[in-house]
Amino acid sequence: MPQQTFHGPAKSGGGTPMRIRKRTAGAARKPPETVATASTPLRFALEALGGGGHVCSLYEARQGCPDILETFLEVGIARGEKCLCVVSAGAEKSFRATLRAASPQIDRAVKAQAVDLTTIERAYFTREGFLPQRALDFWRKSARRAIAEGFTGLCGIIQVDRALGDAAVLAHWIDYENHLTPALAKNGVTILCLYNRSVQSGEFVRDAFLAHAIVAHRGGIGKNTFHVPPEEYAAPDKADREVHRMLASLGELWRREGVPRPAAGELAQKPNRRLSPLLRSVKACKHVIRALADELREHEREERQLRRYVDYLTLGQQLNRTGTWAWDCSSGELFWSREHFRIFGLDPTRTDVSPQLFFQRIHPQDRARVEQEFHQAVHAGHDFDSEYRIGRPDGVIKHVHSCAYPVFGRPGELTEYVGTAADVTERKHGEESVGSMQAELARATRAVTLGQLMASIAHEVNQPLAALVANANAALRWLAWEEPQIGRAQQALTRIVKDGNRASEIIERIRALVRKSDARRNPLSLNSVVREVIVLLKTELRRNDVVVRTDLAEPLPPILGDQVQLQQVLLNLVMNAVEAMSSVNTRPRALAITTASDRTGVAVCVEDRGIGLDDRVLERVFEPFYSSKPQGMGIGLALSRSIVEAHGGRLWAMRNTAPGATFQFRLPLAGAATK
Amino acid sequence: MKPGEPIVFVVDDDASVREALASLIGSVALRVECFASSGEFLRRRRSENPSCLVLDVRMPGLSGLDLQRKLARAEQQIPIIFISAHGDIPMAVEAMKAGAIEFLPKPFRDEDLLDAIRQALYRDEAAKARRSEVTGIRTRHARLTARQHQIMTRIVEGKLNKQIAAELELSENTIKVHRRRIMDRMGASSVAELVQMIERLG
Ligand SMILES: Nc1ncnc2c1ncn2[C@@H]1O[C@H](COP(=O)(O)OP(=O)(O)OP(=O)(O)O)[C@@H](O)[C@H]1O
Ligand SMILES: [Mg+2]
After folding, report:
1. Looking at the complex, does the CB of residue B112 fall below 8 Å from at least one CB of chain A?
2. Does A445 lie at the interface with B, CB-CB under 8 angstroms?
3. For residue B17, which residues of chain A lie inside 8 Å, CB to CB?
4. How many folded domains does chain B comprise?
5. Of A328 and A665, the one with more pLDDT
6. Are residues B82 and B161 in the same domain?
7. Which burial class, exposed, middle or buried, applies to B77 when counting CB atoms under 10 A from its CB (0-12, 13-18, 19+)?
8. Which of A25, A104, A278, A667 has the most Cβ atoms closer than 10 angstroms to its Cβ?
9. Beta A115-119 vs A190-196: how paired, if at all?
10. Which ligand is nearest to the CA of A624?
11. This prediction's pTM
12. Which of A460, A473, A499 sits opposite B24 (nearest CB)?
């Protein structure tokens, strides 16, 4: 996927601000009408973006549609593109009114039919429901039609301000959004996706957000550093690439082509008063600033542009919870970005930042170590990479991860360190709580994994079987003696009967284990079973790059059951789903777990985007010992079904219209389960 | 028990497996003795007769693998055939590395077990014969006098009577007499054989 950034047109790749300006001013495509519009940072960025971007913007009902809508349309219209707006059914009228009131330019375009309106239902849905492929086709065809109609291209707006449908639709939607990014880059179509946060689940909004390469937020626009290109979902070096991407997104601003590096201390000697105090906080980007400062003399517009960069950078840092810093080795001066101050809980207007202040903030238990690590890095001129805790003035303890690289002036002459400080507290807490909860659950439920259960069953059953076979062989051999040993053979045969009975007793015991008496049944919520299993499998899911979306009905009426057994059922279903997706690398490994209830029962649905089931195996999967996996016992589903049936419920499998399989079970409500 | 009659020991915590194995092994006219635990087996007096051990892997108390290690440390070599109710590959590898004859998953074919037992007994017989030879050499060696021992060490080093006589300040004739006595006592017909014997003592 080409790197799309707000300051580099996607097609020409890695352009400098200079080039952007020339391009827009030189007007390769003459706007159909010249309208004097004030250049806002947003407009500037959108113009720079060129065709072929996938932009996401979130809004909430009370603030209405974000202002980016208007700018986005105007930029598209100015480029001579056709604009296609896709909105929820029933919202067309009000949306058209919004458009016409937005600006005279848009109003004219609407009248001239350069702006078209349709609904999500008409554009995306078919009788089979929502299919990602069809939605992608819709944009491809529309772009072709726009060109045929004489436009220079197509720009699209999708406004999602109604619930889209059930879990399956939502999963498909995310799938579609993920694939839209590379598709758009290829076709030169720009699309702005507007999501109303107040009508969608947090998980859905998050997944949608992650699918976009560019985000617009509060009048700013920037590269989405959280975005993972689809081809990277399951790349073996995924983590490395991610780190690389994150660093690149920050580094891009500092290391632009053709910008001469300042000599050591040069900048410190002649501080540019015109730029402070705004810029003091981002002196980390002093290469850019210097380059831009030079241009400032030539173009008065430059200061505004500079501000934009600062805005974008600040926005990016907020989103990433990553601050930047730079330390000038010769002068000893230390610069912190605004976000860096925020992470450290300090007032960003403070001017007395120094390495001493930094070390002071570090937790006493980590201080000596970090100091040593830092001095070692500087001494050797190596990268600095350290994780530590800081105690903030407000008493909060934060976990911070700092990395920095040395910058050399003349060969071998270390001039400064430029680095980041990321707030990783949440991640840390997540790790800790998962660890302890897992241990607790293991203790509380003594949950045996299916593998362990099977190993002990195999051991138990093989014992009498071994005896049985040996006895039968012995009997044959006793009878084969020249003088057949009838008595011995009879004894062996008697033992065979005993062994056979014993084997069947063991199997009966296992079945009884699964059936367990109703006395062990307690009222419980399937939602909590779902949550526990997700926690138990968190590491497993992360290791397999599976993204879980839950949609749990609240409140969910209780059912009567055995917590551990039902955990086993769900554990099996989720592990099967994970295994079914392990070979899938072309779409996100998405898993949806939903709960729902009606008057008679509660249902849990586990839907995956794995290899799926064909009709032939749909019922066979529940047969004991049916397995398609080299390591599989084929007992997971058989056992799960008997557990669910022992609870008076049902477990069944379905094929998805899209890739993947769905397993669902239903249990009667607490009142109904006692018979 | 007749001297030299082979004997098969079975250690398994499962009574029905023990009974079945006793019957199966008995049906090929081999002597069997069964034990319900490793501990029980360890308490039994060692037998001079060729023997082997059919051993279950998973048992309460000392497991089969533990017993194998313990016997090896005590230098009580006995060929072992493992039987296991679940085919655990790493376990099998460990057992085979430590010198087991065979690792059979339960249930097993009677021929596989009986073949393994035959092979084990054959090996044990050979090993016992070798061991008893060494024991013989050791007793004979111990019966030499201090002076004879001094002289024998030098003979084995390949020294001539004259050299030995000079070193020990004895007459060459005395050395000759001692040499004949030493060969007699050790039961060696040549110096080469004597050297071999001393080498086997290690
Ligand atoms: N979500 C799924 N998508 C596709 N196929 C599935 C799914 N779940 C189960 N299957 C198929 O059903 C078979 C049986 O599943 P089951 O859980 O009973 O056994 P298993 O996973 O193979 O082994 P184990 O006993 O270790 O669970 C699997 O081998 C697989 O072929
Ligand atoms: Mg399974």
Report:
1. no
2. no
3. 463, 466-467, 470
4. 2
5. A665
6. no
7. middle
8. A667
9. unpaired
10. 1
11. 0.36
12. A473
Cα–Cα distance for residue pair A622/A639, rounded to 1 Å? 8
Q: Check residue A454 and give its pLDDT.
A: 62
In a domain? residue B1? no
Report the CATH number that the domain containing residue B196 is assigned in CATH.
Answer: 1.10.10.10
Which residue shows structure tokens 């910008």? A259
With a 6 Å cutoff on the Cβ, whether A635 touches ligand 1 is: yes
Q: Does A243 touch chain B (CB under 8 A)?
A: no
Backbone phi, then psi, for A126, in 5-degree steps?
A: -125, -175
Q: Which of A460, A469, A483, A498 has the most B C-beta neighbours within 10 Å, making it the best mutation to test the interface with B?
A: A469
Q: Among the CATH numbers 3.50.50.60, 3.30.1360.70, 3.40.462.20, 3.30.565.10, which is that of A521-675?
A: 3.30.565.10
For A610-635, the DSSP string reads SS---HHHHTGGGSTT---STT--S-
> Residue holding tokens 């407000």?
A394
Calpha distance A331→A267 (Å, rounded): 10
Name B93's Cβ contacts closer than 8 Å, sequence gap at least 6.
none
Contact A300, A310 (CB under 8 A): no
Which tens digits make up the pLDDT trace of B42-61? 998 777 889 999 999 888 77
Alpha-carbon distance of A106 to A450, in angstroms, equals 63
Residue A455 — left, alpha, or beta (φ > 0 → left; ψ -120 to 50 → alpha)? alpha
What gap in Å lies between CA A503 and CA A501, rounded to an integer? 5
3-class SS letters over chain B: CCCCCCEEEEECCCHHHHHHHHHHHHCCCCEEEEECCHHHHHHCCCCCCCEEEEEECCCCCCCHHHHHHHHHHCCCCCCEEEEECCCCHHHHHHHHHCCCCEEEECCCCHHHHHHHHHHHHHHHHHHHHHHHHHHHHHHHHHCCCHHHHHHHHHHHCCCCHHHHHHHHCCCHHHHHHHHHHHHHHHCCCCHHHHHHHHHHHC
pLDDT tens per residue, range A1-50 = 444 333 333 333 333 333 333 333 333 334 444 444 556 667 777 777 77
* Enclosing H/E stretch for A221: strand A220-223
Is B184 contained in some domain?
yes
The verdict on the CB of residue A637 being under 6 Å from ligand 1 is: yes
ipTM rounded to 2 decimals = 0.75
CA of A639 to the centre of ligand 2 (A): 10
- Is A441 close to ligand 1, i.e. is its CB under 6 Å away? no
CA of A636 relative to ligand 1 center, distance in Å: 7
Locate B148 and state its tokens: 């004879």
Select the residue of B14, B86, B110 nearest A473 (Cβ to Cβ).
Answer: B110
Domain, as residue range, for B70: 7-132
* Ligand index nearest the alpha carbon of residue A577: 1
Question: Tell me, what's the pLDDT at B55?
Answer: 95
Residue A597: what pLDDT? 94
- Which residues of chain A does B106 touch, with a Cβ-Cβ cutoff of 8 Å? 462-463, 465-466
> H helices of A132-196, where?
132-148, 167-187
Q: At what angle do helices A104-111 and A92-102 cross, to 10 degrees?
A: 130
Q: Are B93 and B120 in contact (CB under 8 A)?
A: no
